[in-house]
TrEMBL record:
Pfam families: Cytochrome_CBB3, GSDH. The keyword NAD does not apply. It comes from Lentimicrobium saccharophilum. GO terms for molecular function: electron transfer activity; heme binding; metal ion binding. This is Glucose/arabinose dehydrogenase, beta-propeller fold. It comes from the Bacteria. Residues 7-107 form the Cytochrome c domain. The chain crosses the membrane at residues 7-25. InterPro entries: 6-blade_b-propeller_TolB-like, Cyt_c-like_dom, Cyt_c-like_dom_sf, Glc/Sorbosone_DH, Quinoprot_gluc/sorb_DH_b-prop. Keywords: Heme, Iron, Membrane, Metal-binding, Transmembrane, Transmembrane helix.
Length: 475
């Protein structure tokens, strides 16, 4: 990509941010110029991580401090361990001070005012399928994984490091027997799924950021464990995979789980937000899609199983932070959605041994507005099937089957953390032909799954709840 093309992308992002601010600006006609600038800077540079309405600013120490010194310092120098870049070269000191003041001023005492919610029982008329939204569970702390047990009970993992069983309208106490977890930043207890032959073997698979302590320092990387559930306790725990290297970073862990029906378990691990060479090198777990057998062993036909120096679990590489993993119900293909930087979120058809380019090629730019790479394509690196600019922050993904929603069958559903909606993706073979936004402003969508009886369940983290969509025949 040329510099001119990059400038066009940056300009497009700024235009998008300006468009998003029009309603805000029109209602703030008397806002001083410095506040207008701060508001625009927030929407352009900050909202992707911290929310359009500042909804992710919770329980921050600087909120109780008498001045803005701490938040100013965070904006200026960044928080490297949490994935926040430094903006000292992006903004002047005056602009940083104005931005800090804008953030503090914009957080209301009643945060519920920032979260307009769909009302249970109302019929939503989408393009081709009407439905009713019904709340199933509330009061959750960033729900991540959802897995239905035989009989209809629902296992729910919370990123804070707790696992619950939802049964007969009640949430169980935290299930005991989890491994040591480093619940910090984007890490914690992640996805949960059942073995395809759960009725026979009882295996539950759990993804988490494993805690490792070295010289008194807490480190972590993504790990996969399986266990059985007896009463309210996990038993027969077996750690099947530990990602390396361990790091003190608290972001880009991946990790969604998917079985392919052939005894293989797929999952992705992000680049961990450091050492950009990780995704392009085969001697580490980061920035990769992995494939293991259900017992943790390595499939003999893995593309790098016999390559000297390569991690044998690697299935594909060059990924940034994949948080959607799903097997196509008709073709058996592995599809992956992943976070780009600022712009360039991707939907990829993951195939064995292929390189998906991160960070050599990308349709995004750095969070602080600087150019990440001049390249959007390169020989030997795969192009995304589809990409989003601006970023929607895709998380959770599933193909719909079961016949309950006649006009959505085999469509792909992807959660948006950034814009707080569920995206319906219509595909024709390996091409995306149409998208539709559903459940707008429902909250940051962390996961979407299909229940055994064919209903769509959606988990949101702000607020922490689970809803399901009840199909209604169009009249």
């Amino acid at each position: 990509m040329t510099v001119k093309q990059k400038v066009i992308i940056v300009a497009g992002l700024v235009v998008f941010a300006l468009a998003g601010m029009l309603g805000f600006m029109s209602s703030k006609n008397n806002m001083p110029d410095d506040e207008n600038t701060a508001a625009l800077n927030y929407q352009t540079y900050c909202a992707g991580c911290h929310g359009e309405k500042l909804e992710k600013f919770t329980a921050k120490k600087w909120m109780d401090e008498p001045d803005n010194a701490s938040i100013i310092q965070s904006i200026k120098t960044g928080l490297e361990a949490e994935g926040m870049p430094a903006f000292a070269q992006t903004f002047t000191d005056a602009e940083i001070e104005e931005l800090a003041a804008y953030v503090r001023k914009g957080i209301p005492a009643d945060r519920s005012l920032l979260k307009p919610a769909l009302r249970d029982g109302d019929v939503t008329k989408s393009e081709v399928q009407d439905f009713i939204t019904e709340t199933v569970v509330t009061g959750l702390d960033v729900p991540w994984g959802l897995a239905f047990l035989p009989g209809g009970d629902l296992l729910i993992s919370e990123r804070a490091g707790t696992l619950h069983r939802f049964s007969n309208g009640k949430l169980s106490p935290p299930i005991e027997g989890l491994p040591p977890i480093r619940a910090k930043g984007q890490g914690g207890l992640l996805d949960v799924c059942l073995h395809p032959d759960y009725h026979e073997n009882g295996w539950i698979y759990i993804a988490y950021s494993a805690l490792y302590t070295e010289s008194g320092k807490s480190l972590s990387n993504t790990a996969i464990m399986r266990a059985r559930l007896e009463g309210n306790r996990l038993t027969d725990q077996q750690v099947l995979f530990r990602g390396t290297p361990y790091t003190d970073r608290s972001h880009h862990f991946g990790c969604k789980l998917a079985f392919d029906g052939k005894g293989h378990l797929f999952f992705g691990i992000g680049d961990r937000g450091q050492h950009f060479d990780f995704p392009q090198e085969l001697d580490n777990a980061n920035g990769k899609i992995h494939r293991i057998n259900d017992d943790g062993s390595i499939p003999a036909d893995n593309p790098f199983a016999n390559v000297s120096g390569a991690l044998p679990s690697i299935y594909s590489y060059g990924h940034r932070n994949p948080q959607g993993t799903s097997i196509h119900p008709q073709t058996g293909e592995l599809w992956v959605s992943e976070h780009g930087p600022r712009g360039g979120d991707e939907l990829n058809l993951a195939e064995p041994g292929k390189n998906y380019g991160w960070p050599v090629i990308s349709y995004g730019i750095n969070y602080n507005g600087t150019i990440l790479t001049e390249l959007t394509e390169k020989e030997g690196m795969e192009q995304p099937v589809y990409y989003w600019t601006p970023s929607i922050a895709p998380c959770g993904m599933t193909f719909l089957t079961g016949g309950r929603y006649k006009n959505w069958e085999n469509n792909l559903f992807i959660g948006s953390l950034r814009f707080e909606y569920l995206e319906r993706v219509v595909m024709n073979g390996k091409s995306v032909t149409h998208t539709e936004k559903l459940l707008e402003e429902i909250g940051r969508v962390r996961n979407v799954v299909v229940s055994p009886d064919g209903l769509i369940y959606v988990a949101t983290e702000t607020p922490g709840k689970i809803v399901r969509l009840i199909p209604v025949e169009k009249k």
